[in-house]
Amino acid sequence: MPRVRKHLVELLSALSPAEIAKLVAPRLESLRREEEAIRKRLQEVERQIAAIAGTAVVRRRRRRRVGLRRRRLGRPPLGLPRVGRPPVRRAKRGSVTANLRAVLEKATQPMRVKEIIAGLVRRGVARKPGLPNYISRLLSTNSAFVRAGRGLYRMAGSAAASARKIVRRKKAMPEPAEK
To answer: Per-domain residue ranges for the chain?
Structure first.
C-alpha cells in the first residue's frame, strides 16, 4: 500500500490544482447527487415511520421572505401591494373628541353610541376594544355633548334635540300595602 500512495503523490504533484479539480469533478458531482437522493429517501422513511407511530409532525422549511420584518409590523413588503386587507385610514384632523364633535354635528337627530362609533370608524378612528367605553365617558363628562334620552346623545347647541321619538318603558307601580 505505501508504494501505491507514494506513486499517487508523485502523479498529483506533477498536476496543477485546476487539472486535479477537473479530474475529480465528475466523481464529486455523482457523489453529491447520490447523497441528495439518499437524504430524500431517509426523510420519506422517517415520515412513514412517524405516520405509522401516530406522531407525525409536518415541518417544512420556510424560505426567508422579502420584508419579513415589515410583515410582522403589519405593513406590506416594500414594492408589493397589500393584499386581503383594505388600507388603514387615519383619522381626519385631530383627536377623537374633534372627530366625535364632527360626527354629532353632522347628525340630524340624536345618536346612539353604536351609531357614533360607526361614524368615527368611517372617519378613520381606529376601532379598538375599549372605544365604546371611552366614547361613553367622553359623552357623559364633556359639556359639549348633551344626553337627549336613554342612550341618545347630541351636540349641546344643535336642533336635533327632539327629532327622534324617545320611547320610555313604564315601570310597574307597587301596590300600596294594606293596613
So the answer is: 2-53, 96-155
**CA gap 160, 172 in Å, rounded:** 31
pLDDT score of 50 more than 90: no
CATH class belonging to 96-155: mainly alpha
Cα separation, 155 vs 69, in Å, equals 45
Tell me the whole-structure pTM to 2 decimals.
0.41
Sequence-distant (6+) residues with CB within 8 A of 10 are none
Q: What is the mean pLDDT of residues 115-140?
A: 87
Cell numbers standing for residue 92: 381626519
Alpha-carbon gap, residue 32 to 38, rounded angstroms: 10
- 112: enclosing H helix or E strand: strand 111-112
Burial of 161 (0-12, 13-18, 19+ CB in 10 A): middle
3-state secondary structure 65-86: CCCHHHHHCCCCCCCCCCCCCC
